[in-house]
Amino acid sequence: EVQLAESGGGVVQPGGSLRLSCAASGFTFSNYAMNWVRQAPGKGLEWVSTVTGSGGSAYYADSVRGRFTISRDDSRRTVNLQMNSLRADDTAVYYCAKQSLSLVRGIRHNNMDVWGRGTTVIVSS
Amino acid sequence: DIQMTQSPSSLSASGGDRVTITCRASQTISSHLNWYQQKPGKAPTLLIYAASSLQSGVPSRFSGGGSGTDFTLTINSLQPEDFATYYCQQSYSTPYTFGQGTKLDIK
Q: Among A3, A65, A105, B27, which residue is least crowded by beta carbons within 10 Å?
């Protein structure tokens, strides 16, 4: 069974740091890009970051670029999100999601087909 | 960035009804559009990818359509487990933006 499990959430003061991890099982981890998506309390979904299957490329939302760093360790089957200079508006449930690539009518499409249960980050003094 | 706008933001319906949710992109995204369902306190799950392809295991009462900038998610014969929040998401380019969500509740 394909599974993702996030960890590392907690309460941190503004300006502090936190490192989230996502452990993957049930699929060939190194073949897939991985995402972090967050959801502030009572709000919608916000894409945060993506790292490619090779780990060679990383992409970030403007709201976190320069403060967050995504990385992966294929030997440990984990994807991480290092979060620095945290702000109150970073408070959210953080989900990791596997990126699947599908070929539809000759065109490649990506989607987030498996999600973890999420880990909660609260930034508060 | 590509903006995704869903309508309506909320919708009340009864079991057995047919409902349609729309999603509009601020620029053309071809068919790079996914739909997700989220229930309270749970992670989202993928329903539809590439605008109209049904994810494995998703009931056939769910269907998606559209291309370019305008897309729809239709649920036929609503079941009790379908009352949830639905999000569209464009996968055309980063940042992978989501719509604001449509909350479907029981009338």
A: A105
